[in-house]
């Protein structure tokens, strides 16, 4: 299995580590407890309903969960379903950016083909043959499942606040809540996690560019701290705000 190096729109090279087939299989097992288990429970314990209704509910809920569950977490939760989060994985597009709604729908429709003939038989074979462990859905949609760049302990350190955070004011907190999306929150965290893998020059330039963009977006004129500290302060505030 080969790591994948992508170039961001800012012309910074970032190395992505594709998730292995084993960790992906365990992640889908966790998600399948809901997506496959719930319809089976309805089928098994739906005896109080007419048989035709039970069958209709089984197939309807199976379809909605098999597609909707993964699309929701792909698009609204930064590419991390509960199974992926548990295993430290994330689905991104081929450039390392958050995947689009269209990409998510495509990869999850093709999931049914990957599932054949029994529990991801086709998908497993495809991922073992691909250098980046992509199943058919990933190949068609142009997506990639990667391993998170840092362990949770370092992630917690990155999102912890410095002693003095100039962004923690009522006005700025209100603007952050209304102007910074979940996708941007995940982007900022990924940027902080991957910063150590960048060259010093690229790291400085990218952090300054991102910081300047968010200074303008949040109407913050404070420029006494470095771009990187600004980005890290913003990331810490975002995660603290989501937990509150």
Question: If you had to describe this structure to a student in words, what would you say it looks like?
Answer:
This protein is mostly helical and 244 residues long. The protein has 2 domains: 4-147, no CATH class; 152-243, no CATH class. The protein is built from 13 helices and 4 strands. The strands form 2 sheets. Strands 1-2 form a two-stranded antiparallel sheet. It has a two-stranded antiparallel sheet with strand order 3-4. Helix 11 crosses helix 13 (227-243). The longest helix is centred in the first third of the chain and has 26 residues, at 51-76. The chain is globular. The two termini are 40 Å apart.
Percentage of residues assigned to helices: 55-70%
- Protein structure class: mainly alpha
* Spatial arrangement of strands, main beta sheet: 1-2
| Beta-strand content bin | 5-15%
How is this fold's topology laid out?
Elements: E1 4-7, E2 13-16, H1 21-35, H2 37-45, H3 51-76, H4 82-87, E3 89-93, H5 101-109, H6 111-115, H7 121-129, H8 136-141, E4 143-147, H9 152-159, H10 170-179, H11 182-194, H12 200-217, H13 227-243
Antiparallel strand pairs: 1-2, 3-4
Helix pairs in contact: 2-3, 3-5, 11-13, 12-13
How would you briefly describe this protein structure?
With 244 residues, this protein is mainly alpha-helical. It has helices at 21-35, 37-45, 51-76, 82-87, 101-109, 111-115, 121-129, 136-141, 152-159, 170-179, 182-194, 200-217, 227-243, and strands at 4-7, 13-16, 89-93, 143-147.
């Amino acid at each position: 299995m080969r790591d994948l190096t992508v170039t961001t729109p800012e012309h910074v090279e970032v190395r992505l580590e594709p998730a292995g087939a084993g960790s992906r299989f365990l992640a889908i097992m966790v998600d399948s407890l809901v997506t496959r288990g719930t319809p089976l429970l309805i089928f098994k314990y739906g005896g109080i309903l007419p048989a035709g209704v039970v069958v209709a509910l089984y197939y309807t809920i199976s379809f909605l969960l098999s597609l909707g569950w993964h699309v929701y977490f792909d698009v609204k939760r930064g590419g991390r379903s509960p199974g992926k989060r548990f295993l430290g994985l994330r689905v991104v597009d081929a450039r390392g950016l958050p995947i689009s709604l269209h990409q998510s729908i495509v990869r999850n429709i093709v999931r049914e083909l990957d599932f054949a003939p029994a529990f991801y038989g086709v998908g497993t074979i495809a991922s073992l043959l691909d250098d980046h462990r992509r199943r058919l859905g990933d190949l068609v949609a142009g997506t990639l499942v990667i391993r998170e760049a840092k362990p949770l302990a370092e992630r917690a350190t990155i999102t912890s606040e410095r002693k003095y955070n100039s962004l923690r004011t009522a006005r700025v907190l209100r603007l952050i809540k209304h102007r910074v999306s979940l996708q941007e929150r995940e982007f900022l965290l990924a940027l902080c996690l991957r910063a150590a893998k960048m060259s010093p020059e690229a790291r400085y330039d990218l952090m300054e560019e991102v910081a300047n963009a968010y200074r303008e977006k949040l109407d913050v004129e404070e420029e006494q701290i470095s771009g990187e500290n600004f980005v890290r302060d913003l990331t810490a505030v975002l995660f603290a705000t989501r937990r509150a």
